[in-house]
# Entry
Amino acid sequence: MDCGKYPIEILHVGKPNIGSRDAFFKRISQILDNRILTNNGPFVQELESRLSRILGVKHCVAVCNGTMALEIAIRALGMEGEVILPSFTFISTAHALEWQGITPVFCDIDPDTHNLDPQKVEELITEKTTGIIGVHLWGRPCAPEALEEIARHRGLTLLFDAAHAFACSYKNRMIGNFGDAEIFSFHATKFLNSAEGGAIVTNNDGIAEKARQIRNMGFVDYDKVISNGVNGKMNELCAALGLTNLESIDDFKEVNCQNYNQYKKELAHIQGISIVEYNAEEKNNWQYIVTMLDEKKTGVQRDKLITLLHENGILARRYFWPGCHKMEPYCYKKKEKLQPSLPETEKIARIIVVLPTGTATLQSDISDICRLINKALCN
# Structure
């Protein structure tokens, strides 16, 4: 499949959105003047306060990354035994459980939403199940009401991995207000980034208090430790970048939305490729340009298209292939359990192509990408 090469600068999926450099450097100067680099400094506290107001949540606990947010939230919620989660997610969702001696029980997804299928969740609950982790994939809500009802009825804890979903909503209620707690990632690839970072948000006072203790080695005073913990604190430099980028999220959102609409328009006439849609009645961050390739219509395998895009400097991605349940740490179980059958997960993982977007992606780049895809699939 020789389609020629377009002179495109290397375009990454999730190339960082960056706000005002002047505002960031001003904050860095303040940090150096203050000589407070970490340990719940003023910028971390300001970031927590601003995030709480934007999301409409009572508590926000900033941490060093999204994986740590998951691990701390899981510990604060008292999860143990078995926890049900989707296999179609970033591997850290599963690792955060396995790392703490909790068995991840992988569940299939709804092929229309790419999120956990609540009915399948019900089928997997046993006497060992203590919780559920839902993932708001692509920023699209993961059946909050259905999962909350299951959790209430079965007496389970419910955590949402909202790594993709900052500034998104469900029925006009901001993501961050569902379940017992939710976590966000502020990794460089996310809509809002602090280079590295994350947060646990909750409306439960007890969970917030536990999370704050755990992220600071179990300290409740400068020399008093009352529980086990880790060093999960966010530093001041990351908080400064997070605050700077937070001031530009409306601009980021506008660019992402424009990019999405352009992709949607330019891909519409290409047979065999479709784009995942967002609910325009809700708040979205538009951070992910997710396409699905129908190999029967195009005669082109997804991985061949990915290779072609890479050869042209377009670092498209296949998320989350092949599914956590088929990755090395989980593709066989030490406990002699059979590998789960997750047909919808495996089907979606085979056809997903995620394309570059964000403030570093130009309209001309998108046109070049779509022309290349068109040429590849039409040939």
About this structure: The longest helix spans residues 249-267. The mean pLDDT is 94. The first strand starts at residue 11 and ends at 12. The domain at 21-246 is CATH 3.40.640.10 (Aspartate Aminotransferase; domain 2).
